[in-house]
Amino acid sequence: MTSMTRRHFSALAAAALWPLSGLGQGKDDTLVMRAIPSSGERLPAVGLGTAVVFNNDDAKIRETAAQILRTLLDKGGRLVDTASTYGDAELVLGHAMPAAASRDKFFVATKLESPDSAELERSLTRLATRRVDLLQLHNVRHPEQSLAQFRTWKTQGVCRYVGITSTSERAYGAVESVLRREKPDFVQIDYSLDNREVEERILPLAAEVRAGVLTALPFGRGRLFRAVRGKSLPEWSTDFAESWAQFFLKYLLGDERVTAVIPGTSDPAHMADNLGAMRGRLPDAAERKRMVAFVRGL
Ligand SMILES: NC(=O)c1ccc[n+]([C@@H]2O[C@H](COP(=O)([O-])OP(=O)(O)OC[C@H]3O[C@@H](n4cnc5c(N)ncnc54)[C@H](OP(=O)(O)O)[C@@H]3O)[C@@H](O)[C@H]2O)c1
């Protein structure tokens, strides 16, 4: 490990637990927060993913989305991840965010298919904002893809951070090339307790180039819940996890290279459950190994 990487990990460890007041949860409460490597800004480590769940814009879905967003904020979260291609999700958020709270309470991440001004303008209009916090190039698949235009937008104040995303192992080679060359502020990648390829390939490089990591598909699109249906939490996990969601998310947060997890949900109660993964202790290295073995044995 280089001294830069060591320093980076120490900073992340110091920023991992951050006291939060005013939540009505008791004065000893702490939330897992992670520093964005390129800026040091602290981000609550559990956010909200919006693929599929907000596909169709109507009054009912806007109200549910506003409830989910209020829960996110009430329980100490900030990060909302969406994309220009998630059906009506940006539009739903554009209505639900102002219904829930002021724009500056949220850390808004969206994704574009290409560095195209018309696509950017469409996303900003649908999200009812003039700037996003994180602008990501969606589904990187060619090693030569450039973030030059995204960096220009960052300079112009359209976004505060730039990033890339992928959830396809076949594209990891391209992701690695773009990460190494462009050194974005963030990489968003598929990572779950039963899908850990990135521990060897993407996370070490992200730490090296100082990119924050957002974990897409933290439940494998719900696959992990289906695998444990009807089962109770193992007794050895109950002092750090109160639910299967927290078990799955805390495994990911147990890796300090992970900046935030972004589980998708259409249910405010599930949002609250997921945000519970920011509370209490995280599993240590030995417990994380045991979690992997447990899920392998299902
Ligand atoms: N290429 C990319 O950049 C890319 C690709 C895919 C995804 N993503 C991002 O990653 C996010 C997460 O992925 P995802 O939403 O597809 O899958 P996911 O987060 O792995 O799983 C979502 C599923 O888990 C269920 N769930 C959530 N919380 C739960 C809880 N506490 N208890 C029980 N069930 C729960 C949801 O059902 P309920 O609705 O009933 O809660 C939904 O069926 C996306 O929303 C998107 O923002 C990015």
Task: Please give a handful of descriptors for the protein shown.
298 residues, alpha/beta, TIM Barrel, eight-stranded parallel sheet, 12 helices, 11 strands, disordered N terminus, binds NADP nicotinamide-adenine-dinucleotide phosphate
- Per the CATH scheme, the topology name is TIM Barrel
- For the record, the CATH architecture stands as Alpha-Beta Barrel
Oligomer description: single chain
Question: What's the tally of helices?
Answer: 12
Report the count of strand segments: 11
- Major beta sheet, specifics? 8 strands, parallel
Ligand catalogue: NADP nicotinamide-adenine-dinucleotide phosphate
Low-confidence stretches: 1-28
What is the total domain count? 1
Percent of residues in helical segments? 25-40%
Helix vs. strand class: alpha/beta
Our estimate of the beta-strand percent is: 15-25%
Tell the overall outline.
Answer: globular
CATH class: Alpha Beta
Strand sequence of the main sheet, in spatial order? 4-5-6-7-8-9-10-11
Protein name: Aldo/keto reductase
Organism: Variovorax ureilyticus
InterPro entries: AKR2_Oxidoreductase (IPR053135), NAD(P)_OxRdtase_dom_sf (IPR036812), NADP_OxRdtase_dom (IPR023210)
Domain NADP-dependent oxidoreductase: 46-284
Describe the structure.
- 40% of the residues lie in helices and 16% in strands.
- With 298 residues, the protein is of the alpha/beta class.
- It has a single domain (32-296), classed as NADP-dependent oxidoreductase domain (TIM Barrel).
- The strands form two sheets. The protein has an eight-stranded parallel sheet with strand order 4-5-6-7-8-9-10-11, with helices on one face.
- The model is unreliable at 1-28 (pLDDT under 50).
